[in-house]
Amino acid sequence: QVRLVESGGGLVQAGGSLRLSCAASGHTFSSYTMGWFRQAPGKERLFVSAISWSSDSTYYADSVKGRFTISRDNAENTVYLQMNSLKPEDTAVYYCAAEINRRRGYYYYTNPYEYDYWGQGTQVTVSS
Predict the structure, then answer these.
(1) For 4-20, what is each residue's pLDDT tens digit?
(2) Is the C-alpha dihedral spanning 68, 72, 96, 114 positive or negative?
(3) Nearest-CA neighbor of 24 among 67, 61, 79, 70?
(4) Closest by CA position to 81, among listed 92, 89, 72
(5) Contact predicate 84/17, CB 8 Å
(6) Tally of CB atoms within 10 A around 6
(7) What is the mean pLDDT of the segment spanning 22-27?
(8) Which of 115, 96, 116 is CA-nearest to residue 1?
(9) How far is Cα 104 from Cα 75, in angstroms, rounded to an integer?
(10) What letter does residue 65 receive in the DSSP assignment?
C-alpha cells in the first residue's frame, strides 16, 4: 500500500504562485513514477505533469508548459509541483498519483488509468 497526502493548495490571485507537495509513504518511493492531475467541477480528471522514477523524464500538459515545474526529493519521499503565473482556468482539485510498475513512455505517464495510487486531492482556486 502507498499512501499519498497532498498539501499546498489554496486561494491565489491570477498571476500568483503556489507550490503543491505530495508526501508518500513506503520505502520504495524512488522507484515510483509520480504524476499530478487536476479535476474541475463537472469535468474529467486531466493530466498536468509527471516525473519518472529516475527523474530523467518529465512531462507537462500543453496548458501548463512554461508555468509549472515538477520535481521530486526521493530522500523526503515527496514530489512537488511549482505553479507560477496561475490563471483562473487552473482552478481545480489537484491530485498526485503513483505508478509503481516503472512503465516508461508518454502514454503511461499521462494516462490516469495507468496510475495505481491516488491522494485525496488539494483545492487550488485562482481568482481573476
Answers:
(1) 999 999 999 999 999 99
(2) positive
(3) 79
(4) 72
(5) yes
(6) 22
(7) 88
(8) 116
(9) 22
(10) T
Residues shown for the chain: 128
Q: Which three cell numbers stand for residue 39?
A: 479535476
Strands 122-127 and 10-13: parallel
Q: What is the pLDDT of residues 69-126, one digit of tens each?
A: 999 999 999 999 999 999 999 999 999 999 998 888 889 999 999 999 999 999 999 9
Phi, psi of 20 (to 5 degrees): -90, 145
Could you tell me the end-to-end alpha-carbon distance of the chain, in angstroms, rounded to an integer? 40
Separate counts of helices (H) and strands (E) for the chain: 1, 11
**Cell 486531466 belongs to which residue?**
46
- Report the chain's C-alpha Rg in angstroms: 13
pLDDT at 102: 84
